[in-house]
Design a protein that fits this description.
alpha+beta, elongated, binds manganese (II) ion
Length: 233
């Protein structure tokens, strides 16, 4: 009888060890930083971000959601030399970064409206990511073209509309305080469309129809490197 109990317990222990190893392998990469600890999140805000990437191969940041008390309203624009060159505009909203790929990049001319295709939300750490994404999803060199903080300026009946609501409603108006971009920029979703938005500069003191800013300001706002220098590491 004792032998049976011993055998039974051994099996339980082995199964537990295997289960733990399995859990570790499949551990969710979606965490929230709470009081210095990384806690797994129930609601997977960065599910799509994780699904598209193999973190054993890509140097891109892991999926961590920033808690409310640590959110800083940051934005970033990354020049991404993928199959097709584009600029990724990302705004920190609710601890992650909703993102748009802008094929022609930002313009300071208020008359120029650029197509902005919404992509999967990115982790906030992505704002500082610069480097080479290996073969696979998003392969190519990434440069932090601009970064800084933003202020929500969209009002309705004299009151600020919360960013989450602006995103849901498909109308965002933010004042950027970046190294290169300043002043108000607008994002408007096309009617009855899920992913296609328009991105343009509001006519204010920072608007400038003569400057082609993506051409003239073509170094990293973070490290002052050219795309070639980043590629060659
Ligand atoms: Mn991209």
């Amino acid at each position: 009888m004792k032998k049976f109990i011993a055998l039974f317990l051994t099996i339980i222990v082995i199964l537990t060890v295997f289960k733990t190893l399995d859990l570790l392998k499949k551990r969710p990469l979606n965490y929230q930083e709470t009081k210095g600890f990384l806690m797994p999140l129930k609601k997977d805000l960065l599910k799509k971000y994780k699904e598209k990437r193999d973190f054993s191969k890509t140097p891109e940041p892991k999926a961590i959601v920033i808690p409310k008390d640590k959110q800083k309203r940051i934005f970033t624009i990354q020049e991404h030399h993928a199959t097709h060159l584009h600029w990724d505009f990302r705004l920190e909203i609710e601890g992650v970064m909703p993102s748009w790929a802008i094929p022609k990049g930002p313009s300071l001319d208020p008359k120029v409206k650029r197509l902005a295709v919404q992509t999967e939300d990115h982790p906030v750490a992505y704002a500082q990511f610069e480097g080479v994404i290996p073969e696979g999803y998003g392969a190519g060199t990434v440069m932090v073209w601009d970064y800084g903080t933003y202020k929500n300026v969209r009002e309705k009946d004299g009151k600020l509309v919360p960013m989450e609501k602006c995103l849901k409603e498909g109308r965002i108006e933010v004042e950027l305080q970046g190294k290169k971009l300043k002043g108000v920029f607008v994002l408007i979703r096309f009617k009855d469309e899920e992913k296609n938005w328009l991105f343009f500069k509001k006519d204010d003191e920072f608007a400038d129809a003569r400057r082609n800013i993506t051409k003239t300001e073509n170094k990293s706002a973070l490290t002052d490197r050219t795309i070639k220098q980043i590629k060659e590491n």
